[in-house]
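Subject: design request, 332 residues
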């Protein structure tokens, strides 16, 4: 297990602020992000604009490539804080744990995927999907659950009304669609925008808009770590809230400039288009609070997908005290 964990953590290391010149009085925090995504703009803003540093935190950011691997890293103490879908904390809770994973600061509040059609459709109606081949996301993951929740809401049975393909790895979905698999695909950014700009597909709907507000991506940690380091978690949440307010107030161009260092291999105009799309549909949470109504909506989505054994208590797996203190401190 130890060697596996080391391999996981080494997948995509990005260490920022951990150089030898970092202030000695700063507290080091190891964040594991489930993937590298423009969807997580507030996190990158908190780093690039110095909000973590202002709070005395030295951030080491690692991309842990997948919810399971991110949870393995967190539970095995390979990282201190995870940025991942809040459903993962529910899965850990369902397995039984004396040290539950607790959500303490929300980053995104909608699903981040879009419906992409192979052909241009001027007047789209969800019923058009019936009888089509649909390239979906991995079973049990939040994108797939939000996708199926939306389809059912639109009167479509994913198992009966579609030829549903779910055996393609996340990283290979864009290539599979580009090579001819599927009439429609559920796809994250920036791949959706890239495919659209290249004329290989067309973004026709947003699963984020259709599935409603959810605590989709949240900073979380083990309860024991939070209890041992409440001041550090408070500083961390303060920085996140500063970044959220910055993102809410600044223009698409300014946000794009702030996150570009994390997407050096992506065309700047693509990044800008994705930031605009997510900002326009209000995917970025404007404060760190994990709202109970949104938490219940998340569980409704999981329940509809058959992935929820029993409802998880909001009070057990969510701690909003740090978010509330961050908001109050900002008013002073």
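Subject: RE: design request

Done. Sequence follows.
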């Amino acid at each position: 297990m130890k060697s596996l964990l080391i391999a996981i953590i080494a997948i995509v290391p990005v260490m920022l602020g951990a150089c030898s010149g970092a202030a000695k009085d700063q507290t080091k925090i190891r964040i594991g992000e489930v993937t590298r995504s423009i969807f997580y703009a507030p996190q990158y803003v908190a780093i690039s604009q110095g909000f973590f540093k202002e709070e005395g935190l030295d951030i080491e950011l690692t991309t842990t490539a997948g919810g399971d691997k991110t949870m393995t890293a967190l539970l095995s103490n390979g990282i201190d804080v995870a940025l991942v879908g809040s459903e993962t904390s529910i899965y850990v809770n369902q397995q039984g744990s004396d040290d539950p994973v607790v959500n303490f600061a929300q980053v995104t509040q909608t699903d981040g995927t879009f419906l992409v059609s192979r052909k241009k459709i001027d007047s789209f109606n969800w019923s058009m999907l019936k009888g089509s081949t649909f390239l979906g996301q991995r079973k049990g993951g939040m994108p797939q659950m939000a996708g199926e929740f939306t389809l059912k809401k639109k009167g479509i049975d994913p198992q009966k009304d579609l030829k549903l393909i779910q055996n393609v790895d996340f990283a290979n979905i864009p290539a599979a669609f580009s090579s001819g698999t599927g009439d429609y695909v559920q796809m994250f950014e920036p791949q959706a925008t890239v495919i659209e700009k290249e004329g290989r597909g067309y973004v026709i709907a947003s699963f984020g808009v259709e599935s409603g507000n959810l605590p989709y991506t949240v900073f979380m940690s083990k309860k024991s770590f939070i209890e041992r380091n409440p001041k550090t978690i408070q500083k961390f949440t303060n920085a996140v809230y500063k970044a959220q307010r910055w993102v809410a107030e600044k223009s698409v161009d300014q946000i794009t400039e702030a996150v570009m260092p994390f997407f050096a291999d992506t065309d700047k105009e693509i990044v800008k288009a994705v930031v605009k799309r997510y900002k326009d549909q209000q995917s970025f949470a404007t404060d760190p609070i994990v709202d109970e109504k949104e938490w219940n909506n998340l569980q409704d989505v999981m329940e509809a997908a058959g992935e929820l054994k029993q409802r998880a208590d909001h009070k057990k797996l969510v701690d909003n005290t740090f978010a509330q203190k961050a908001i109050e401190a900002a008013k002073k």
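The radius of gyration is 19 Å.
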